[in-house]
Specification:
The complex is a heterodimer of chains A (261) and B (99). Chain A has 261 residues and is mainly α. Helix content of chain A is 62%, strand content 2%. Chain B has 99 residues and is an all-alpha fold. The chains are: A mainly alpha (261), B mainly alpha (99).
């Protein structure tokens, strides 16, 4: 792939290799991470690197839009929904169809080989025209894109407005929930709490020790075991509950029962 | 290296996204993989625009971004609605349409 006439300088080669490696690493991290939040952060890495590659491809407008729309809006919307759905909604790694993972990987690798081979052989001798002429014709990249959008692609541009309004309406309709019964008042909540099975008062506080008193520290029950409900449920669901080492428990026993000599 | 290297990178990213769609079970991660595939296609469009020497490819990539933004909004609303009724974001759960 080196015999073709190119407008690629050394700086762009460096940028390409750094950003391409980071983008592929982000994509692989997305597929391989166990937790959905980690996947979202990996995809954000990939998208930032793609923005840099757009800039290198003399598309400054798209590079900025990529940062604003994808890493700024779309990925943060993903993170927002992940928080709504629950950060503990981690994937199950049990194969429901036997051999599906292997088959999917093989098919995708085959697709990659097919695409690279086909496109590579088709494009190997094609010289790149470069966008310098097109980017300066109307005074700049943004002006050039605006010229095309408002002349040649005007109808498509108008149609996207209909698409966006429909999407906003659809999201509102889908996310809307009708209230079947009136919202419970504070009195209703108090009555339900007294009549229910759960604790009437507050849940126990997290443990307070000489070295730890954060919310991830479970309190110790009188028999020396730890109380699960003293740690907030989201912390427990993430598996961030701090295991108590025996040193702490022995310290507690020393404090409660006095020094044993 | 010439601009067709970008096409190769785009093919690799697209295939990784396809693996994610086929393998992962969490609906949100599947959705992120779809986004990755759309981004790979965008990269190909931008590289093609440079090879062709006109800005049409960049305009198409711009429209793809608009469509992707609309798609994310509706798709995530569907995921939230399914999660509300089924308490699960796994794509193996909603099999009621089979019966």
């Amino acid at each position: 792939m080196s015999e073709a006439v190119t407008d690629v300088n050394t700086g762009e080669v460096v940028v390409f290799w750094v950003c391409a490696v980071l983008a592929v690493a982000g994509a692989l991290g997305m597929v391989l991470s166990r937790k959905a939040v980690h996947s979202a952060l990996w995809v954000a890495l990939t998208m930032i690197n793609l923005a840099v590659l757009y800039l290198a491809n003399s598309a400054p407008f798209l590079g900025m839009v990529q940062v604003v729309v994808y890493t700024g809006a779309v990925m943060m919307l993903f993170l927002f929904v992940l928080m709504v759905v629950g950060v503990d909604a981690s994937d199950s790694f049990i194969e429901t169809i036997k051999g599906q993972r292997l088959a999917a990987t093989l098919l995708s690798v085959g697709l990659a080989i097919l695409l690279i081979w086909g496109l590579g052989s088709a494009l190997s001798g094609v010289p790149a025209q470069g966008l310098d002429a097109a980017n300066t014709a109307d005074g700049g990249n943004v002006q050039g894109i605006a010229h095309l959008i408002f002349t040649k692609y005007l109808l498509v541009f108008e149609l996207t407005s209909g698409l966006l309004i429909t999407a906003a309406m659809g999201a509102m309709v889908l996310a809307h929930r009708d209230r079947w019964k009136p919202a419970p008042s504070q009195r209703d909540l108090a009555v339900a709490r007294v009549l229910g099975d759960g604790p009437v008062g507050n849940l126990p506080n997290p443990g307070v020790y000489a070295r730890h008193n954060a919310v991830d520290t479970p309190a110790i029950l009188p028999d020396g075991s730890t109380s699960d409900v003293s740690v907030p449920a989201p912390v427990r669901a993430r598996g961030d509950e701090r295991p108590l080492d025996r040193v702490d428990i022995e310290q507690v026993h020393q404090i409660t029962e006095g020094p044993t000599e | 290296m010439n601009p067709s290297s970008y096409i190769v990178l785009s093919a690799i990213l697209f295939s990784i996204g396809a693996i994610g769609v086929l393998v992962r079970r969490n609906a949100i991660i599947v959705f992120m993989s779809v986004e990755l595939m759309l981004n790979a296609a965008n990269l190909a469009f931008v590289a093609f625009a440079r090879m062709n020497g006109n800005l049409d490819g960049q305009v198409v990539a711009f429209f793809v971004m608009v469509v992707a933004a609309a798609e994310v909004v509706v798709g995530l609303a569907i995921i939230v609605t399914i999660f509300r009724t089924r308490r699960s974001a796994s794509i193996d759960e909603p099999n009621l349409l089979k019966y």
